[in-house]
User: Which sequence fits this backbone?
DNA sequence: ATTATAAGCTAATTCCAATTAGCTGTCAAG
DNA sequence: CTTGACAGCTAATTGGAATTAGCTTATAAT
């Protein structure tokens, strides 16, 4: 039941591994458990399936983003109090973000699809950059700005602080997308990064 | 002349933008200025062209890597002296690495091809991770370890230092691959990052 | 001069994958 | 009960893309 939705799920799984062109309608159908022509009862073409995946994602993202306070909306950082943020708080936040991005099945597949399709499709390039760069930067920059203003952290360029805090998470995520088996090796490094970052910007040493 | 080499160049250009499957033999031939069947006088199949590109790159990399002191060979960091490394030295080194990766035409195309093919081809995944993560990390970690030991920088985990130094370069490079027009916006940020990194790890502030 | 080879071309050939045609069974609404 | 929409199937159809066949010309070696 709900074949229509299952088609999108299986198609996304396949697209994220093989890219749009190397996935055949018959592959998607097989994954769903039907024959290729039956699939046309639900979508009028392969491209239509792809578009539906994009539409679905656009809905999902705004929810998740505001949930994680990750959106570009500058009002959202208000929720973070100016006052103390401990090293453990930063670790919790950074690891939480990292683990969510890395392990949420839907998010992961969608990201991998963006990765392999980005140069063919300018829309996807924009979505990728917004979700994985501009939005996190803008949120974190606002946060670090306030933490600096509140005297919790050194007064340094908050854009740079955001870049330095976030890009290790991003980079290691891309490595783990390629080599999930190396995750064990990198998780501790992320935590060490965040603790070291925190100490450096608190001026402790 | 040297059609054989031109085929590789044009094929790489196309593969890097559209991915292997979306490039037709006729496209490559057209870019070279011949007809598709003529191309088979030089390579026995489309796959053969792809393989030749890989082979060529394997040769290129080891040279470039040792030139840039970027390889995984731990002896290579010996060239860096223990003694003083100024903020400007770090900027020069970081920006040089970044600009080379970002603007060298061959390197850029090859990276984009790795990006879009990585999940289909485990070999490419390994090459990507080696060239853009393991090798830079191992070189820089050795370097920061020596700078710490020499008292030039604080004694902190050198793996984390390498991660923090390099991952902003990597991440911004991936953004610029998608949006070359945003380069102007990001180059200054890279320089600020390196200067801020340097000051933090020198304990100045 | 002759001939072999290299590198190009046009015209098949072959295969494959998306899509369409047309049929069948189910089942809910009337 | 019976009819229409739904969702599936098998068997075409269509179009596109890789590769092969077979021919031509230029050139370099004999």
Assistant:
């Amino acid at each position: 039941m709900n074949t229509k939705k299952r088609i999108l799920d299986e198609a996304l799984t396949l697209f994220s591994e093989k890219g749009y062109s190397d996935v055949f309608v018959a592959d998607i159908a097989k994954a769903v458990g039907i024959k290729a022509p039956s699939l046309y009862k639900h979508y009028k073409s392969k491209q239509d399936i792809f578009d539906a995946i994009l539409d679905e994602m656009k809905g999902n993202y705004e929810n998740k983003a505001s949930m994680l306070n990750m959106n570009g909306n500058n009002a959202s950082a208000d929720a973070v109090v100016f006052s103390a943020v401990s090293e453990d708080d930063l670790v919790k936040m950074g690891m939480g973000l990292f683990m969510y991005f890395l392990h949420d099945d839907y998010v992961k597949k969608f990201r991998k699809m963006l990765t392999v399709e980005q140069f063919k499709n300018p829309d996807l390039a924009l979505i990728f950059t917004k979700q994985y760069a501009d939005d996190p930067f803008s949120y974190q920059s606002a946060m670090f700005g306030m933490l600096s203003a509140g005297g919790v952290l050194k007064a340094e360029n908050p854009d740079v602080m955001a870049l330095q805090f976030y890009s290790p998470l991003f980079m290691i995520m891309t490595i783990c997308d390629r080599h999930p088996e190396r995750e064990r090796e990198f998780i501790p490094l992320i935590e060490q990064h965040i603790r070291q970052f925190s100490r450096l910007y608190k001026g402790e040493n």
Remarks:
- Residues 72-80 of chain A have pLDDT under 50 and may be disordered.
- The interface with chain B takes residues 16-19, 21-22, 112, 115-120, 125, 128-129, 133, 154, 156-157, 159-160, 163-164, 166-168, 170-172, 174-175, 177-179, 189, 192-193, 196-197, 200-201, 203, 205 of chain A (CB under 8 Å).
